[in-house]
Amino acid sequence: MEFEFVFYLDKKATSDVSFQYTTQSGTAEPNKDFEPITGILTIPAGGQTGSIKVTVTGDSTRKTDQGFSIKLSDPKNCTLRTKSEAL
Question: What does the pLDDT read at residue 87?
Fold first, then answer.
């Protein structure tokens, strides 16, 4: 299963927009509950959205909800305004 995080610009980019991202564990454990990822997301000039997919590994044991997040940093040609929502 994959979770897809979608990022929106408030208007079309006039030049390439990019930022770094990395998964952050919460109650979910990396390499056990999800595959940790790190990278750079680029939204090309003329674009307005981009997405990051994180693979989530399930098991058959019933547990309370588990969460992780994505940390964004080093924005280029944009300002990050985020609404924090743990999954």
Answer: 43
Give pLDDT < 50 ranges for the chain. Answer: 86-87
Task: Determine, yes or no, domain membership for 87.
Answer: no
Range of the domain at 25: 2-76
- How many separate domains does the chain show? 1
Two structure tokens written together for 16: 């390439």
Q: Pick from 9, 70, 63: which is nearest to 36 by CA?
A: 70
Residue 39: inside a domain? yes
Residue 53's pLDDT is 96
Distance CA 39, CA 22 (A): 7
Q: Is residue 63 assigned to a domain?
A: yes
Q: Could you tell me the pTM of the whole model?
A: 0.83
How does DSSP assign 57-86, residue by residue?
A: ---SS------EEEEEEEEESS--------
Here the tokens at position 62 are: 């019933």
pLDDT at 62: 63
